[in-house]
């Protein structure tokens, strides 16, 4: 059991935690959430004894074996397999000592070390290392390659594998899915579900949290709060708490206004002076409730793109790859206004190759790429962060794109991405990864693209920003094609799935949940899905083409229904909110006095009209759902 008592923590002049108390039970799986800069990484540093709290204490850590995922790794010539094995330091030492003893011909010592290896389950170590490499999406030859051969994102995966290899009672993971694709994310879910120790992880992937965690720790306003359940449970409970808090706050504000009005009118009248002083003391004693700040700091939309082409972009019989080595062959893809496509497939299958070919960064080997006259592409991937000018401000980045733009227009736009004041006008060198990702995304939005091409856009973004981006994409009127391991984003922004596998791109006729089940079943039956396997049985090319055409026709029939269902659901939600507000007004006792009768009559009439409207909407929604079910 780990107990944090009355923890206060400052970084410089900023107070991160104040009076924090929490107890972590053995074998619990917890997610630590909070806005960027709220203190999550500092709390990890305290648990790792790299940072001391200003006041308070941490109990129960002295005898625990800790494993954690480092965020950086030096470029070493050590092989990837040996680097991962070093996570189990005792076992790695045993392996080295055994090799040395056998090389020296010291067979008595070697026999003793063989016994120790057996006790430590050392003979399965190589198999475990290869499972970790496979599960996290490394290619087959990765084990023997030196660490220095891998790029930054792949080195982070090596750090994750090393942490998972470390024997531990408590595992600390900081954004473990940031550099994973969807398949590797699903594999990691399974691994963590079976982990027997205490898990504490920082994550902004809500589906990943839901699948792995049973409790949420949130840092909000310098307070550390514990919530029972996964992230979806946390959202529901926090919404209820904020609603109650807001109601209490508003009720108190009414009371404060009455008291202040009384004091203002009567404090200097002798007959009322004592009562006025009593009211002033009541105000001083009253605990000031903070209003519930439920609004996200992010609020942006994709502005209308203006003129468009139909189709915007197409590939015909295209072979895609590098040099004369095709990764994908015979690709036919048409992107039209309103297309919303997500790419699925294993790491290395060619998803990023397809995106780079679409934007024209990668020349086609064969075939044809045709862009519409009014096609304007907005492209985002993690390399965009590296192209930012660290000496320039966020505002200057925008100004370079649009020299004639007014300063206030730029500042208003950046405010929607939470770049305000000096934060918008100072050099971005000190920005975190998440802040740079926000700026790179803002630059894409500013250019008003009518075709968005997004490659893992949520990496480094916190939950508030992910939600804002999801809402903005839902309202985006152009075409969208994206790759992401964030299933919540995929489900809520894409209505068509393409599977990239075995050198081809084809429609995936099932839904995202079916794809997850296929991947997980593949990992259960073997440590990794077999190379070349696909979630559907092989079928003749003509049959597959007919199925694709039929599926496309069915989607076209469903699309108007789905749009009207979405519109109706929004109207139902608005009617429900209006009804709740109206009933709160009707709960005011003053309405039922004689002078309140006219207002009461008006509110009752509005209530009746709202009820009729809500019933009509519900009936229409049921009709639409029934029609959609018949098409299905």
From TrEMBL:
<feature type="coiled-coil region">
    <location>
        <begin position="565"/>
        <end position="620"/>
    </location>
</feature>
<dbReference type="Pfam" id="PF12848">
    <property type="entry name" value="ABC_tran_Xtn"/>
</dbReference>
<dbReference type="InterPro" id="IPR017871">
    <property type="entry name" value="ABC_transporter-like_CS"/>
</dbReference>
<dbReference type="InterPro" id="IPR003439">
    <property type="entry name" value="ABC_transporter-like_ATP-bd"/>
</dbReference>
<feature type="compositionally biased region" description="Basic and acidic residues">
    <location>
        <begin position="553"/>
        <end position="562"/>
    </location>
</feature>
<protein>
    <recommendedName>
        <fullName>Probable ATP-binding protein YheS</fullName>
    </recommendedName>
</protein>
<dbReference type="Pfam" id="PF00005">
    <property type="entry name" value="ABC_tran"/>
</dbReference>
<dbReference type="GO" id="GO:0003677">
    <property type="term" value="F:DNA binding"/>
</dbReference>
<dbReference type="Pfam" id="PF16326">
    <property type="entry name" value="ABC_tran_CTD"/>
</dbReference>
<keyword id="KW-0547">Nucleotide-binding</keyword>
<dbReference type="InterPro" id="IPR003593">
    <property type="entry name" value="AAA+_ATPase"/>
</dbReference>
<feature type="region of interest" description="Disordered">
    <location>
        <begin position="525"/>
        <end position="565"/>
    </location>
</feature>
<dbReference type="InterPro" id="IPR050611">
    <property type="entry name" value="ABCF"/>
</dbReference>
<feature type="domain" description="ABC transporter">
    <location>
        <begin position="313"/>
        <end position="527"/>
    </location>
</feature>
<dbReference type="GO" id="GO:0005524">
    <property type="term" value="F:ATP binding"/>
</dbReference>
<dbReference type="InterPro" id="IPR027417">
    <property type="entry name" value="P-loop_NTPase"/>
</dbReference>
<keyword id="KW-0067">ATP-binding</keyword>
<dbReference type="InterPro" id="IPR032781">
    <property type="entry name" value="ABC_tran_Xtn"/>
</dbReference>
<keyword id="KW-0175">Coiled coil</keyword>
<dbReference type="InterPro" id="IPR037118">
    <property type="entry name" value="Val-tRNA_synth_C_sf"/>
</dbReference>
<keyword id="KW-0677">Repeat</keyword>
<dbReference type="GO" id="GO:0016887">
    <property type="term" value="F:ATP hydrolysis activity"/>
</dbReference>
<feature type="domain" description="ABC transporter">
    <location>
        <begin position="2"/>
        <end position="246"/>
    </location>
</feature>
<comment type="similarity">
    <text>Belongs to the ABC transporter superfamily. ABCF family. YheS subfamily.</text>
</comment>
<dbReference type="InterPro" id="IPR032524">
    <property type="entry name" value="ABC_tran_C"/>
</dbReference>
